[in-house]
Amino acid sequence: MAPRAWEHLLGDADRERLAGARFGRRVGMGERCAVLVIDVQNYMVGPPPGSTHAYPSACGPVAERALQRIAPLLATARAAGAPVVYTRMELRRDGSDGGVYLRKREPLQTEGWLWEGSEGAAIHASVAPQHGDIVLVKRKPSAFFGTELMSLLVDRGIDTVVVTGGSTANCVRATAVDSASYNFRTVVVEDCVFDRFEVSHLVALFDLDRQYADVRASDEVRAHLERRS
Fold first, then answer.
1. Across residues 43-53, what is the average pLDDT?
2. How high is the pLDDT of residue 3?
3. Is-contact 185 29, C-beta < 8 A?
4. How far apart are CA 153 and CA 184, in angstroms?
């Protein structure tokens, strides 16, 4: 296996502990996959052409590169008949549904953030939902919390949840942990997730691969979907 992106963060003692404790076994992908696209919104990626609004929360080039990999993965999923489910994080403009999130983080007063109906809250045009895709609005990190995602997956007989989008250490991680907690085989697509901070991105991938999910490349996931189409 090729060196993992987070390998340089680990010392010898870390590697010995990983091996001794038998972390990081492969769960594999099952027969019925669904692809989750977490919060690929303008506020997470960056302003659309011609925008005059501030985008202080955007991930920029790392998000743009991930979206370039997400787009073909979604095309493969749709061709294979796998459900594609988007989430969109948005809050009321008065902050009344923000809860602890807005106590921990000061609201950003710009149309380039996640306010309901804002430019920032829109899904990025390069990976816009297609006919038959599902879009869920959420107000907490996990795609499962307060949404109908679980019932949708059960109704479709899904056994494998494939997670893409952002950010790796926040909403992707929370979604993947919940997915594994519900006993879905869970895959985090390494080149299809992104974060504002490289250290958060790498540590989150390490933790997820160690305990909750298989961190895989998009080419591997696409190949699996193609075999089941």
1. 97
2. 80
3. yes
4. 10
